[in-house]
């Protein structure tokens, strides 16, 4: 777990303008920044209202994809499976 207070103290105590600029840029960057191969994305506030249709569009929601999967699924491979036991195995 990241110690936020420690990080904030380090930021407050630093006199390195270049480092402070990099931190500011990181916090302003909407698309995120790659730091040592890890995508760093700043916190984004949740809007007061969410448009479900916009979310579906952004996430490429396709109800027909699930329908097609279910229609093409080979249910016979599960005929001898004990569902309760399978769920317990997944939880291990």
Work out the strand percent. Answer: 5-15%
Distance between the termini: 25 Å
Q: Low-confidence parts, pLDDT < 50 over ≥5 residues?
A: none
The best one-word shape is elongated
Arrangement of strands in the largest sheet? 1-2
Roughly how many Å is the radius of gyration? Answer: 23 Å
Structure at a glance:
The chain has 92 residues and is mostly helical. The protein has five helices and two strands; from the N terminus they run ααββααα.
Task: Give the topology.
Blueprint: H1 4-13, H2 17-28, E1 33-35, E2 38-40, H3 52-58, H4 63-72, H5 83-90
Antiparallel strand pairs: 1-2
Which key phrases capture this entry?
mainly alpha; 2 domains; 2 strands; elongated
Q: What does this protein look like?
A:
- With 92 residues, this protein is mainly alpha-helical.
- The chain folds into two domains: 4-40, no CATH class; 52-90, no CATH class.
- It is built from five helices and two strands; from the N terminus they run ααββααα.
- It has a two-stranded antiparallel ribbon.
- The mean pLDDT is 82.
């Amino acid at each position: 777990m990241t110690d936020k207070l420690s990080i904030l103290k380090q930021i407050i105590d630093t006199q390195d303008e270049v480092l402070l600029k990099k931190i500011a840029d990181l916090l302003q960057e909407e698309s995120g920044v790659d730091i040592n191969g890890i995508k760093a994305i700043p916190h984004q506030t949740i809007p007061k209202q969410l448009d479900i249709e916009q979310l579906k569009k952004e996430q490429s929601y396709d109800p027909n994809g699930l329908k097609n999967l279910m229609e093409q699924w080979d249910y016979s491979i599960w005929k001898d499976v004990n569902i309760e036991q399978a769920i317990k195995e997944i939880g291990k």
